[in-house]
Each structure stands twice: as C-alpha cells, then as structure tokens.
Amino acid sequence: MEFTSRSNFNCNGKFFYYYPAGAGGLSEAYMLISGRNCEENMTVALRFYNPEIPALGTFDFLTPEFADSSSPAIRHNISGDGVYIYENLIGGELNIKSFTSRDSVTMEFGKLEGTFEFTVFNEELDSTVHVTDGAFRFKVANFW
C-alpha cells in the first residue's frame, strides 16, 4: 500500500515539532516528524527522545547515535474497527540531508529534509509493516 500525506480543511497532513524546552503540551527534548493521510486516517511518525540538534547523516533507528532513542510508528484508525498501532521496531534507518534552524538575523526559515525506511510489528495482530522510500521536507520556523 502506498502512503502519501494528505491534508484537508480540518486536518494538517504534515507535522514537525522540536523545541528544546517543550511547548504545546509536548515534552522537552522531544522531536516528532509525521505525515498523515487525513482521508484514510493513517499516520506515519518518526519520534526521537533527547536528540542532538542539528544532526546530519544516516542513522540506524535501533541505535540512533544522535538521540537517546527513536520510535517510528504507524497509526491507522479504521472506522468501526478501532485503532491499529504498529510501533514494535524491527529495524530501519534515517538519513538527514539538511537540518537548520531559523536564521536569527535574516529571519529566513531553516530546513529539515531527509529520507527513511523502517519495519514495525503489531504483536496483537501478528502483523508486520515495511515502510520504504519515505521522505520528508519541512520549513523550520523555530530557533535553538
């Protein structure tokens, strides 16, 4: 199955969050990169705890050298059937090609860009999902 983030009037399909001090009800030292297909109610998320920012290069999700831990996940809400979450990590990697914060002098937005692939498992469903050819690109509005 192919996944593409898709927004609609009530739902933002792309989300990047990172503030060293925490904000908006999310923990400090937590980074989230996610895409959501609002029509199909499915989300692919890359979560990192205590990341060293900025970090460039290729990182293994099981031993993510630039963060204390990482936890990719897939969440799928199927109308009437409930919520299926795949978050037991089997393996995968992340390649961060560009990661800059907003320029404090010119006020130009920074950029986060990269690719990823991972495999996650749902033990209850005895089901595995392989995510391949994942990519992201965000404008970074915050400073650090």
Topology of helices and strands:
Layout: E1 14-18, E2 30-37, E3 42-49, E4 57-60, E5 69-70, E6 73-78, E7 82-86, E8 88-99, E9 110-122, E10 127-140
Antiparallel strand pairs: 1-2, 2-3, 3-5, 3-6, 4-8, 6-7, 8-9, 9-10
Descriptive overview:
With 144 residues, this protein is mostly beta strands. It has no helices and 10 strands. The strands form 2 sheets. Strands 1, 2, 3, 5, 6 and 7 form a 6-stranded antiparallel β-sheet that branches. A 4-stranded antiparallel β-sheet has the order 4-8-9-10, with no helix packed on it. The protein starts with 13 loop residues before the first strand and ends with a strand. The model has no long low-confidence stretch (mean pLDDT 89).
Question: What's the short story on this structure?
Answer:
The protein has strands spanning 14-18, 30-37, 42-49, 57-60, 69-70, 73-78, 82-86, 88-99, 110-122, 127-140. With 144 residues, it is mainly beta. The strands form two sheets. Strands 1, 2, 3, 5, 6 and 7 form a six-stranded antiparallel β-sheet that branches. A four-stranded antiparallel β-sheet has the order 4-8-9-10, with no helix packed on it.
DSSP strand (E) fraction?
over 45%
What is the H/E string?
Answer: EEEEEEEEEE
Task: Please state the structural category.
Answer: mainly beta
N- and C-termini, Cα separation: 37 Å
Number of helices: 0
Average residue-wise pLDDT: 89
Shape: globular
Unreliable stretches: none
What kind of sheet is the major sheet? Answer: 6 strands, antiparallel
Quick one: how many beta strands?
A: 10
Radius of gyration, rounded?
A: 15 Å
Helix content: under 10%
